[in-house]
Amino acid sequence: EERQCCTTVMQSAQVTRAQVGDSVLLPCNYKTNPLPETTSVFWRDSNSSVVLDIIKKKPDHKTQNEKYKGRVFSFQNVYNEGNFSILMKDVRLTDSSSYECLVLEVNHLQILKLTVSVGYKTLHQRVCSDDDVHITCNTSCVRSSWRQQPVSSNTAPTKTDI
After folding, report:
1. Got the DSSP string for 65-102?
2. What's this model's pTM, rounded to 2 decimal places?
3. Confidence band of 135 (pLDDT split at 50, 70, 90)
């Protein structure tokens, strides 16, 4: 008897957006009851690096790529419900990638795309001296220098673009 194998693929990749430093949930759900105790799930990024392996419904952090160690976790208490989502903490720009979640026993493949951007933070700084204050930003910020003017009730620091 010949066994047919088929793979269920989510047709369009779900896009998740995050900013550097955020925590992000990457969902992977397969609803069929009951899932065998031998169910294994393999999370991979676009370079085929191991994001997380779940072997026989147990997370295996030993096989995890170094760049994900200590940052990617799953929720073992919901595996029996078919939820193999992962939480990625302290997201980095280099985490922008496509991710695949393969539920092996049922040949279910879910593809996700994570887009990471640099967030903008507002800086509030009160200057109480006659010294210049220099603020340097990396990545996509505009480099600026702030100069304090003599203190009076109607003056504010002025911005000089470098």
Report:
1. -GGGTTTEEE-GGGGGGTB--EEE-S--GGG-EEEEEE
2. 0.66
3. low
